[in-house]
Specification:
By secondary structure, the protein is mainly α. It has one domain. Helices cover 77% and strands 0% of the residues. It is built from six helices and no strands. The protein is flat, with a radius of gyration of 17 Å.
Length: 136
């Protein structure tokens, strides 16, 4: 039986904080999948898709992957660093689009700032040294 302490690997604080930030879009996607599923089961078709069940499964799989990446970073697994960088870049893009063309500054600015913080944390010297050390 694996103990909880055995799951954690040595990692700098920046990587663990990045894991907490990276898990947020995954949890949001999982919550959205549940909302879609509840809407589909209740007969609500206002989401504009003919296949709400398929859309709910898509967001559940996407959210599961994003959440796994964030948990991987938090636990100190270096495989999660590259997907974490991709998550950060997507968050910055989504934040830009929400703040700019969509005119939703209250949503876009926090998402973009979180994405930028995630990117900075993953490229700080301790995080880079940790990732390079793990691959030698």
């Amino acid at each position: 039986m694996v103990r909880l302490a055995e799951l954690f690997r040595p990692a700098p604080r920046e990587v663990r904080v990045a894991g907490v930030i990276a898990v947020l879009p995954g949890l949001a996607a999982l919550v959205f999948a549940v909302v879609l599923l509840i809407a589909a089961l209740s007969g609500n078709t206002t989401f504009g898709s003919d296949n709400v069940y398929g859309e709910a499964i898509y967001y559940a799989v996407l959210g599961g992957g994003l959440t796994a990446c964030g948990i991987g970073l938090f636990l100190g697994y270096s495989w999660a660093r590259s997907p974490g960088v991709v998550i950060a870049l997507v968050m910055i893009g989504v934040g830009w689009y929400a703040a700019g063309p969509s005119g939703r500054l209250e949503l876009g600015v926090p998402v973009a700032l979180l994405g930028l913080a995630l990117l900075v944390l993953l490229f700080r010297e301790p995080a880079r040294a940790w990732a390079a050390e793990d691959h030698e």
